[in-house]
Amino acid sequence: MRRTMLCSLFVAASALCGGSVFAETIDLGLPEGYTAEVAAKGLSNPSGVAFSPSGTLTICDSADGRVLTLESGELKEYITGFPTEYWKVDAESGAKRFKLGPLSAVWLDGETLAVTNAGLKDGEETVVFFKGPGKAEAGEETNPVGPTSEDEADKGEGNLTGMTASKDGKTIYLAGQGADAKTWLLKVDVADKKLSPLFSADDNDIAINSPMATALWGDDAILALYSGAGGKDDGLIVEWNLESGKPTKQWTVPGLLDPMGFAVIPGTKKLAVVDNNWALTEVKPGKLAVVTLPEESGDAKVEVLTEKLRGPVACTFGPDGKLYIGQLGKEFDKNEGSVIAVSGLK
């Protein structure tokens, strides 16, 4: 009934039930020179956002178990039928919170889309490849990654997110959310469809866990964003050398409590970072910041542009130069989520 009502209300704006597109500006209290608009709304716990080589915005509508594309001003279902699960279940009340499905997507070329099948149990999740629109079950998947430690709580890697493809498209880097006893970045060998652990924070004396996003950094390194413990100012950005497999630099991000997404600002060595300000019971106001990394390890320079986002979880730059941010909206587990486009970052 609720979805039928939504479709009736928004049919003039969108041809897709459950998601709608609006050409409207939004006041985020940004500094002069910056503007923001709603690119898409009516999403449920949206997560990863990406662009195809032709410039098509691609959205992981996570709790609805699907991937959407924005084409000619309309949201369209691209891949449907992903399994979903609730991240937390209250032990006393049995209340289920924060429904998850596909969390990240990345285009490898004009027709190949890779998606994390993150609505499964830890140790069962995979990355799935698609050559066109269709059902999730029709994709070609990698292997899952099982336990990597002796800890009984370690069930294997899960909540796979934050994917980045190498420049040649042969490798995908991503973040894993398995047991905190062993925190991993992982990689996918695209040709063999093999998913395997890559870098362990714990093996390199990095105490902060919860990796959330990856980004290419120069020719021989990637950056990884670690959100740390919920509600604590302990987020971390680490530079990993792809040849040595070792962390070469680390930067704290003062004032950002739960950074979950970042993107390199085109033509610069600066980062756009979104801070979710995580809480399991509500969606709190989140931040967008421009982060400058010093030459040496230490505190990064953090310039907060707004504190009026609603649960931002991921971001990417589009071919139009705008930063596209997936955010949860006023409430999670409901169709309150949206993608916000911010102009002016440079």
Give the topology, please.
Layout: H1 2-10, E1 24-25, E2 35-43, E3 46-51, E4 57-61, E5 66-71, E6 74-80, E7 85-89, E8 96-100, E9 105-107, E10 113-117, E11 126-130, E12 134-135, E13 140-141, E14 161-165, E15 171-175, E16 184-189, E17 194-200, E18 211-216, E19 221-226, E20 236-241, E21 247-252, E22 259-264, E23 270-275, E24 285-292, E25 298-299, E26 301-310, E27 312-317, E28 323-327, E29 337-343
Signal peptide: 1-23
Protein name: SMP-30/Gluconolaconase/LRE-like region
Region (Disordered): 134-162
Key phrases:
SMP-30/Gluconolaconase/LRE-like region; five-stranded antiparallel sheet; mainly beta; 346 residues; Neuraminidase; five-stranded mixed sheet
Walkthrough of the structure:
By secondary structure, this protein is mainly β. It has a single domain, classed as TolB, C-terminal domain (Neuraminidase), CATH 2.120.10.30. It has one helix at 2-10, and strands at 24-25, 35-43, 46-51, 57-61, 66-71, 74-80, 85-89, 96-100, 105-107, 113-117, 126-130, 134-135, 140-141, 161-165, 171-175, 184-189, 194-200, 211-216, 221-226, 236-241, 247-252, 259-264, 270-275, 285-292, 298-299, 301-310, 312-317, 323-327, 337-343. The strands form seven sheets. A five-stranded antiparallel beta sheet has the order 1-2-29-28-27, with no helix packed on it. A five-stranded mixed beta sheet has the order 3-4-5-6-12, with no helix packed on it. A five-stranded mixed beta sheet has the order 18-19-20-21-25, with no helix packed on it. A hairpin with a 5-residue loop joins strand 3 and strand 4. The longest helix is centred in the N-terminal third of the chain and has 9 residues, at 2-10. It is globular and about 50 Å long. This is SMP-30/Gluconolaconase/LRE-like region. Keywords: Signal. Residues 134-162 are annotated as: Disordered. Residues 1-23 form the signal peptide.
